[in-house]
Amino acid sequence: MKVNGVPFRSLWQTADGAVEVIDQRRLPYAFATRALRSVDDVIDAICTMAVRGAPLIGVAGAYGLALAMRRDPGDAHLAEAHRRLNASRPTAVNLRWALDRVRAVLAPLPPPRRADAAWLEAARIADEDVELNRALGRHGADLIAAVHARTRRPVQVLTHCNAGWIATVDFGTALSAIYQAHDASIPVHVWVDETRPRNQGLLTAWELAAHGVPHTLVVDNAGGHLMQHGEVDLVLVGADRVSARGDVANKIGTYLKALAAHDNGVPFYAAVPSPTIDWTIDDGLAGIPIEERAAGEVREVAGLDRQQQRATVRIAPDETPVANPAFDVTPARLVTGIITERGVAAPHGLGALFPGRRQAA
Amino acid sequence: MKVNGVPFRSLWQTADGAVEVIDQRRLPYAFATRALRSVDDVIDAICTMAVRGAPLIGVAGAYGLALAMRRDPGDAHLAEAHRRLNASRPTAVNLRWALDRVRAVLAPLPPPRRADAAWLEAARIADEDVELNRALGRHGADLIAAVHARTRRPVQVLTHCNAGWIATVDFGTALSAIYQAHDASIPVHVWVDETRPRNQGLLTAWELAAHGVPHTLVVDNAGGHLMQHGEVDLVLVGADRVSARGDVANKIGTYLKALAAHDNGVPFYAAVPSPTIDWTIDDGLAGIPIEERAAGEVREVAGLDRQQQRATVRIAPDETPVANPAFDVTPARLVTGIITERGVAAPHGLGALFPGRRQAA
């Protein structure tokens, strides 16, 4: 997608062998990039959320292994790099999926051939991510078009967190559907949840504004009220992990929106490339680990001060105890459909869309 | 309640005839009071939320009429002051209730007697508010005690916004129940919703810390996840208006917590003094006006900067469209009970608790 008219991916290789990423902690206030030159750089970028979004974390992890192999392609270092990268964020499954895929390619190779093979495999995963998201966005755009065909009004979509192109290598997941509907002249308006504590909704608003998609920012508390008053035609989110039966782990607060959608007859969809599906887990509520993040994310809010300089304010004192679970799980019964690169399935129909995968679990 | 060991109400008369209030916009960062000397001062305090909380707004409105009468006790000025005060915040019904009550006392009186009568009536309303909240808190504490008797664990209560003593003249509504349970040695822990956009949860955390009640601050997105994992025994909120059939208008986002409570078998209670009940409306969703507030409340976040000075950061640019509905309505079907000064009623049982009121509508 374009930033100020210039086409960008959210991650790319540089001529000098680094992996360059958009530093998402500085968005939407500044557009800056950052070169990752070691596995430690990659882990730091993932942990601090300079790089975020389940699909992008997966690709970054793959490149992390490649950077590790360039330094030391031995078995012990491969195992260690895999373990450390995999632990950098526990909820998104794309990371484990990408790491396992690269390791499966590398393990049979003699160490001297591993670095090149890892770079190649990471690049393949990145390119595939783009194609998966393009494909799933087409299916999602069809859903939006169908609502418009029925209502003849601008389609009102509510989204939570950022499932845009910067959460992937390109196109995005939920926003891929919205971009493609918009580009096909389907009128769309997006309600953008702020998404406390890290306010990734601001990234979504930034993306939508750059692409010219009409949108309105709301606090996370507002979505239920909007749905009660017929202001939302569908809820469309990404996911960090979807269980085999269709339970959806996504940014904290998604479950509340799914409940409101269900209570008001509003369809609720998660848009996910297949690497986000964890075929080894059925019960997402019991099986998907939920990351607990630092209290500072709740206590401090970042923005711009009056001089337009990046600043943070502390809203709660250190003495105030804080809990900060980063994700929740929306049970499949509240999910209308999962949008994948192969089409849209009811949660219980995911296995039929990916017959080989399900059995492999 | 006490602030730094000194007993305070949230509003009181001064020796020189002003009405002094705690400036709630400066909490929790600074404790400052502000003298209201005219009806315009009162309207400004209500609109800017220096004075907030449905019960306290009602009392402040009554004093606003008293201040107006001291300046000009004529019929036209009475009508005008009533109209302007009533328009200052549309959702909380206590304001209209208190204004109507004072006006009913004043209207039959010759103008020269109105100012004194208005002061007297406003003081009566303030004192009654304290007693209503003390009484309803006792009933709420009984509910908390019953949970503890069953579980023998600290009772986990989730609350939204600030329904504490500063939202009333004293004691609070939801927090009155928590304070009284705590004071009766029932172990209670409170999950405090941040309550974007204005973060009144910080006021709640400040109150609870001052009273020594264990609590944990969470973002508004977290409550559903907590309930899914058995971390909440009951949800306890205040209200700005409750319809005759028990629909609960409260701070935006309350409905989402009620949905999560319902989905997880967690009881959901609203604690309200009877002046919060609007006997003229049955269908709260259709009948209760929802205030839309300024976009700046969403775009800017207040806190302390690194020098511990009050500061705001802008999180979204002016170009980002914002919607800011301040309240939502939780339908009676999601409400386990309404806690009033006369006891706890199922929503449909409210009329039986207040038989005279219902017929009067």
Provide the fold topology:
The structure is a homodimer of 361-residue chains.
Chain A: E1 2-3, E2 6-7, E3 11-13, E4 19-22, E5 33-36, H1 39-47, H2 54-71, H3 75-87, H4 94-106, H5 111-151, E6 155-159, H6 174-183, E7 188-193, H7 201-211, E8 215-218, H8 223-228, E9 234-237, E10 241-243, E11 248-251, H9 254-263, E12 268-271, E13 277-278, H10 284-287, H11 296-299, E14 300-304, E15 310-314, E16 327-330, E17 337-340, E18 343-345, H12 350-353, H13 355-360
Helix pairs in contact in A: 1-2, 2-3, 2-4, 2-5, 3-4, 4-5, 5-6
Architecture overview:
2 copies of one chain form a homodimer. The first copy, chain A, has 361 residues and is an alpha/beta fold. Chain A is built from 13 helices and 18 strands. In chain A, the strands form 5 sheets. Chain A has a 7-stranded mixed sheet. Chain A has a 4-stranded mixed sheet with strand order 13-10-11-16, covered by helices on one side. In chain A, helix 2 runs parallel beside helix 4, helix 2 packs antiparallel against helix 5 and helix 4 packs antiparallel against helix 5. The longest helix of chain A has 41 residues. The relative contact order of chain A is 0.12. At the A-B interface, helix 7, strand 8, helix 8, helix 9 and strand 14 of A face helix 7, strand 8, helix 8, helix 9 and strand 14 of B.
